[in-house]
Amino acid sequence: MNWITNFVRPKINSMLGRREMPDNLWIKDPETGEMVFHKDLEENQFVIPASGYHMKISARERLKFFFDGGKYEVLENPKVVQDPLKFRDEKRYVDRLKDAKSKTSLEDAILSAQGAIDGLPVVVTVQDFAFMGGSLGMAAGEALIHAFETARQRKRPLILFAASGGARMQEGILSLMQLPRSTVGVDRLKEAGLPYIVVLTNPTTGGVTASYAMLGDVHIAEPGALIGFAGPRVIEQTIREKLPDGFQRAEYLMEHGMVDMVVSRLEMKKTVANLLKLLLKVPEKTNALQPEILPPAVTSGETRPRA
């Protein structure tokens, strides 16, 4: 027992009125090394004020920042069989799922909700990279398709915030099957004449980029987001050449026609709302669609679906 650490120091701190500082009180800018006060960063939607660097955020934080007044109603994801292949590597797949659920408080990598942005009723689907790298498995695939069908049935546009490392290897071919299935969901939404806007966040890679994440009517990217199929290191090792500076970053892809625009998170809601008004031909001074398809009233913050 270290009596100086466990007894003497706490006694001195209590006598001098010192308090333990939280570990996350200050956050370091990955680009410049600048220390930013956590509360200031949160108020700025986790965009570093000086450098404009976009920190990763959780699915719930993104929904809170995006919807009017932070109000939204969560869509319940369909239930699927867990660990259909009884997969195990260094750790059992069921244990990895358990850890990811505990870490993120999510059932899987997809969180969908309905609400309004600038008065327009929409469905929003967010991939959370913190849940096993936002990988696409059966549960995420079913959640995506459910979101597309909900948007189609309720005649609402769908906005997807993509963040993924690709297909989930622990589910093998069953994971890859979700790519064409989700593509069908996109087609059905477009056949109904409803807009589908994709926001590519850091990172969006693998099969997700090769399917529904690149099928939007408009593709928006957050600044500095890594977007591509294979990673830069894999490409360099394959072609044995040095890649250009900024290769596969949002700004590079916009210059080469892969994305339509690069928009700061701080301007994302306004930009998407303006695009939807153009696509839906909403009159300039009208901030809502017909009353019959307005979203149901919800309380402040997240709500669960009605029975």
Describe the secondary structure blueprint for this structure:
Layout: H1 3-16, E1 26-28, E2 35-37, H2 38-43, H3 59-66, E3 72-74, H4 93-104, E4 110-117, E5 120-127, H5 138-153, E6 158-164, H6 172-176, H7 178-191, E7 196-204, E8 218-221, H8 232-239, H9 250-255, E9 261-262, H10 265-280, E10 302-303
Parallel strand pairs: 3-10, 5-6, 6-7, 7-8, 8-9
Antiparallel strand pairs: 1-2, 3-4, 4-5
Helix pairs in contact: 5-7
Average pLDDT for all residues: 89
- From the spread of the alpha carbons, the general shape counts as globular
For the sheet with most strands, the description reads:
8 strands, mixed
Range of helix content: 25-40%
Structural class: alpha/beta
Here the CATH topology of the largest domain equals 2-enoyl-CoA Hydratase, Chain A, domain 1
**Percent of residues in beta strands:** 15-25%
How many helices?
A: 10
Which architecture of the largest domain per CATH? Answer: Alpha-Beta Complex
Order of helices and strands: HEEHHEHEEHEHHEEHHEHE
CATH C-level category of the largest domain: Alpha Beta
* Number of discrete domains: 2
Q: How widely separated are the two ends?
A: 55 Å
Low-pLDDT segments, ≥5 res = 290-300
